User: Fold Arylsulfatase from Rubripirellula reticaptiva.
Amino acid sequence: MTSRNTSCAPGRSRGHCSLRFAFAVLILGAAQVTTAVRRCDAEQLESAKPNIVFVFADDQCFETLGELNNPEVKTPNLDKLVRRGTTFTHAYNMGSWSGAVCVASRTMLNSGRSVWNANAIYNQSEAERQAGRWWSEHMKSAGYRTYMTGKWHCKANASKAFDVALDIRAGMPKDTKTGYSRPAADGTDPWSPSDPKFGGYWEGGTHWSEVVANHSSDFLKEASLRNEPFFMYLAFNAPHDPRQSPQEYVDMYPVDSIKTPVNFLPKYPHADLIGCGPGLRDEKLAPFPRTPTEVKVHRQEYYAIITHMDVMIGRILDAIEATGKADNTWIFFTADHGLAVGQHGLMGKQNLYDHSVRVPMMVVGPGVEAGRKIDEPVYLQDIMPTTLDLAGVQKPEHVDFNSLMPMLEGQPSPYENIYGSYLDKQRSIRTKTHKLIAYPNANVLRLYNVEEDPKEMNDLADDPKSKPLIQEMFAQLQDLQRELNDDVDLTSMKP
Assistant:
């Protein structure tokens, strides 16, 4: 007998299918109809699952959204996400075992493991890592068509992890010597962020942020014609250095209009002993000691590439609307970590101040409260189990992070305190009101009242009145170390 398709067409109701099945019984017989019923049920279950779009920036500090906290920077499309959804105002990266903080952050995100547990699997073989199941593979198992484009920076094979993977990028665009230790003290600067001759984001002829938007729009057009839910992992390299963008975006930010950060320092006092000295690549971007003029130039280019990326994100949001599936699509936006860009005398992200560990994070989706801000602490990697929750996937035992769904429904954060780390050189704990930072190599503790001093400018560690609080927080930090399998011994620093 000729095979016939008795499955439900996209958008058809179960009642419509029932009529088709009644006729099919007469033609095909009960066994084939039972198969068709199961197929229809499976298709309806998959089509009911929400689509998920994850948009990932690189090196974007939490203080770079016009709608939230920085009138200097223009981010109209990210501002729309703030207004349309819920913003987690205190989202953090847990730290890094590598100078390339991106690597640790992204390995944590895609494996679901906390920093030192992620480090433990980082050098595993491909087969061992695949056995542990990556984020995208869990989504595949839930019936999602998975897609990624842009920066990957994990050791796993993205082409195997996703159904579709295009223009898989390395950790950063290729840089040049011209882009370092600039501008000079006399104001001369051979670098131009808009000149294609320096390669970087311009390599290939189209700015890499535009490539992400182009690929994303193409996939969304295709997805609009398909029935299965989609999961998109859209990873911009921007605003990581070399911070390049078209000249029109640079011109939006005249250097004279850029403010010097209030916590600017010519040099951080413990830079060498905490791994942030002149030998660190990120710190070589500007000369030592820092000057306000140098910092303004770097912040000009930082804001320009963020605004350019924002325009590309706007194109992606428009493409989502054009699918006709926006009402059943969740959008998550965050970054892998922040960046100092002149704050505290630092240029990079290899430190535990909020400008370098705290990121923007917005969630938009069906039923998510518009314009809401949640100030309780979370980790950016909590997005991974949140999407598993939405997909109906039971959280695997190895996933250390937590779904944000209970918080979106009004419950408190599962985290009492936030842990921070960098190599074996820095550790921190952040409570609602204070942050304690430990520098083992320098034998230095720093304490900030982040509630009253959000820019972390007034170190209270030497104030005798702070001793009881330091003792309490130090003990809590050691508890977190044990919980997170952190083997750095801080005992000799115990106050």
The first strand starts at residue 51 and ends at 57.
